[in-house]
Amino acid sequence: MLGKRFAILERRQSLGGTWDLFRYPGIRSDSDMFTFGYNFRPWTGAKVLADGASIKQYVADTAQENDVERHIRYGVSVKTADWSSDEKCWKLTAENEKTGEVETYTASFLVGCTGYYNYDQGYKPDFPGEQRFKGQVVHPQHWPENLDYTGKKVVVIGSGATAITSGAHHG
């Protein structure tokens, strides 16, 4: 990006997105890393379907090697992004989540990389009778660090890669 200035506004406190958020045992990519990885820094790991920690490290190493990290503003939540036809630029308002201060940014080009997760509250449908359930309910998005499920019966409710990965690991 010769001659261009840029900033990355990251609402979370660290990089990695999904690979930083989800910490359940056995999390891995459901896409092969040779096509999922960066074309300018090919994946050289031994696992084709890599685990989450390895992918997060790959992203972090790539950001560091390419001097991207110094452009990341952590803990900044974008509130509005408005296009000004008169000034031919985007005008963003954002909140610094630690201080509560409002920050403003302008840009001639904007890329939204928001993902599709609600990082604060994972999707959880209503389960009739759940309040009567005597066991522990764990959402993979908020996995307790030292969860011990040894000798317990585990039921996985869900669909997609998260359910398959967590079910295969615990089954």
Considering the chains and any ligands shown, give keywords for the structure:
three-stranded antiparallel sheet; 171 residues; FAD/NAD(P)-binding domain; 2 domains; alpha+beta; two-stranded parallel sheet; 4 helices
CATH architecture verdict of the largest domain: 3-Layer(bba) Sandwich
| Structural class by secondary-structure content | alpha+beta
CATH superfamily of the largest domain: FAD/NAD(P)-binding domain
Q: How many helices?
A: 4
Low-pLDDT windows of residues:
none
Strand content: 15-25%
Question: What is the CATH first-level class name of the largest domain?
Answer: Alpha Beta
SSE order, one letter for each helix or strand = EHHHEEEEH
What secondary-structure arrangement, pairings included, does this model have?
Blueprint: E1 8-10, H1 18-21, H2 33-36, H3 52-65, E2 72-74, E3 76-84, E4 89-96, E5 102-107, H4 160-170
Parallel strand pairs: 1-2
Antiparallel strand pairs: 3-4, 4-5
Mind explaining what this structure looks like?
The chain has 171 residues and is an alpha+beta fold. The chain folds into two domains: 8-107, 3-Layer(bba) Sandwich (FAD/NAD(P)-binding domain), CATH 3.50.50; 130-170, no CATH class. Helices cover 19% and strands 17% of the residues. The chain has helices spanning 18-21, 33-36, 52-65, 160-170, and strands at 8-10, 72-74, 76-84, 89-96, 102-107. The strands form two sheets. A three-stranded antiparallel beta sheet has the order 3-4-5, with no helix packed on it. The longest helix is centred in the middle third of the chain and has 14 residues, at 52-65. It is globular. It starts with 7 loop residues before the first strand and ends with a helix.
